[in-house]
Design brief:
Layout lengths: L3 E2 L6 H13 L9 E2 L17 E2 L6 E5 L4 E5 L4 H8 L4 E3 L10 H7 L6 H4 L6 E7 L5 E4 L6 H6 L9 E11 L3 E9 L2 H14 L1 E2 L2 E2 L2 E8 L2 E10 L14 H4 L5 E5 H5 L18 H6 L7 H14 L1 H8 L5 E11 L3 H11 L5 E6 L24 E11 L8 H12 L3 E2 L9 H7 L2 H11 L8 H5 L4
Parallel strand pairs: 2-3
Antiparallel strand pairs: 1-4, 4-5, 5-9, 6-9, 7-8, 7-9, 10-14, 10-15, 11-12, 13-14, 13-17, 16-18, 16-19, 17-18
Length: about 475
């Protein structure tokens, strides 16, 4: 069965030709960047000297095939637009990252995660094939097997250093109208870890099926596991796009329900809890703050303006307050070490709340085991917990900016974990290559970008180029 076309057909071939022409126009030796309006990076970069790649025509859904449960999607399509195209068919991507303007190509080349990751892994694990613009200027179709399987395996976490996805075919899963939620409180982190282990093994909790699982830690003595079940029945689904704030509800509700659409974006309205930095959680401010601006991408634009103009930093200096270090990270910690790491984090960093999202590499039917992804080498059959913390801390007297992030990196490595690279990284080259598949990356880089026109992975992630 052929995929159904979406309501607004896209001239994909023309969009790809436009992209290739803009790539050819970048002078040799100049950095290659995407010209895109939104970004979910927290890593400042050097200013480009040349126009970015024209990806303006690569933002759509090419088709949805309800029978095969697949979608063909352009690389710059946001998950917001993708979900709008799949939900009318009763389908959703296997993993929908929690922020609306994350793009499918960005989630595959830069990683993504959400509450279905304990059973479906990461977004790149549901990709069946991709068309990739390589550093050599070619458009190649890459699949798990075949001539270009090496590029397929190395693409996740390559951050555009090996090419850019122009089209992706992904698997979809059936979904129902609502998500029923149970918010389970734990006063001991070991008990929370045991509960995660139990849900992963059985797919249920207290006799009820679990289709989605994430959590929040407010302190080592107060953490919640949020268990979701797809259902077609819900008496009074909640609405957290208005005055109510989702993460605050966890402390007062043991049961909840949301429409599936609202569940997928439950964290986006307040950027998890980070909207508090702009006063949006104050009842009076919230009443007059336009709903169209209660979105993660708008808050991120405000952050970028602050990075550029340093208004808050100047006010802090004027008031005699210490400078602050940005600590914005998502890290994967093996389940057995999660409680210990969270206590270390509470003692040495002290930011709360933090997000908890269990993760296991996916085991596709027929393979018998999970695929290996060398640039982000998680262990098959190992349960991890993604721990997300986003904010800033005062720079202690005598310390340097970056010291807290370096301490986090050491603690993550000592715990046998990994951290994603969308934000600040401080590794030296040898440690980075060891942690992020440097040998594999160089071999694939030399094959598909022999002139090294695309900025290297280390240069992007650590040197901010």
């Amino acid at each position: 069965m052929r995929a159904e076309r979406v309501d607004h057909p896209v001239d994909h071939d023309q969009a790809v030709d436009t992209l290739r022409r803009s790539y050819a126009a970048v002078p040799p030796g100049e950095p290659v960047r995407l010209a895109k309006r939104t970004s979910n990076l927290f890593r400042p970069r050097s200013a480009p000297r040349t126009p970015g790649l024209d990806v303006s025509g690569l933002t759509g859904v090419l088709g949805v095939d309800p029978a095969a449960r697949t979608a063909d999607v352009q690389g710059m399509c946001t998950y917001e637009d993708l979900v709008d195209a799949t939900l009318p068919h009763g389908l959703m991507p296997l993993v929908v990252p929690q922020l609306r303007t994350i793009t499918l190509g960005g989630a595959v080349t830069g990683l993504g995660i959400e509450s279905t990751s304990f059973r479906n892994g990461l977004p790149h694990e549901s990709v069946r094939e991709m068309d990739v613009l390589t550093g050599a200027g070619e458009i190649l179709t890459v699949r798990p097997e075949g001539e270009h399987a090496d590029l397929f395996r190395a693409f996740p976490n390559s951050l555009g250093s090996l090419g850019y996805a122009t089209r992706l075919r992904i698997e979809l899963q059936p979904v129902r109208r609502y998500v029923a939620l149970r918010n389970i409180r734990f006063s001991r982190l070991e008990e929370l870890a045991d509960a995660i282990r139990d849900v992963v093994a059985k797919g249920e909790w207290a006799g009820e099926p679990v289709d989605a699982m994430d959590g929040v830690m407010f302190s080592p003595g107060e953490a919640y596991l949020l268990l979701g079940t797809f259902t077609d029945e819900a008496e009074r689904p909640s609405d957290y796009t208005g005055q109510d704030i989702y993460y605050r509800s966890l402390r007062r509700r043991t049961r909840d329900a949301l429409t599936t659409y609202d569940y997928l974006w439950r964290w986006d309205t307040d950027w998890f809890w980070c909207s508090a930095a702009f006063g949006v959680q104050h009842p009076v401010v919230r009443r007059f703050w336009p709903a169209r601006y209660r979105r993660s991408d708008f808050y991120h634009r405000l952050v970028r303006l602050e990075h550029r103009h340093q208004v808050a930093a100047r006010v802090d200096r004027w008031r005699g307050r210490p400078a602050r270090e940005r600590v914005v990270q998502d890290v994967e910690i093996p389940l057995d070490g999660t409680a210990e790491f969270l206590r270390w984090f509470d003692r040495h960093v002290g930011m709360t709340p933090v997000w908890l999202c269990p993760l296991r590499l996916r085991e596709p039917a027929g393979l018998g085991s999970a695929r290996a992804w060398p640039l982000y080498p998680l262990q098959p059959a190992e349960t991890y917990v993604n721990i997300g913390f986003w904010g800033s801390v005062p720079i202690a007297e005598g310390a340097a900016d970056g010291d807290v992030n370096r301490a986090v990196e050491r603690a993550v490595s000592e715990a046998g974990g990994h951290k994603s690279l969308y934000s600040d990284a401080y590794y030296d080259r040898a440690a980075f290559d060891r942690l992020y598949g440097g040998e594999t990356w160089r071999a694939v880089k030399d094959r598909y970008d022999p002139d090294h026109r695309l900025t290297g992975l280390y240069e992007k992630a650590v040197r901010r180029q």
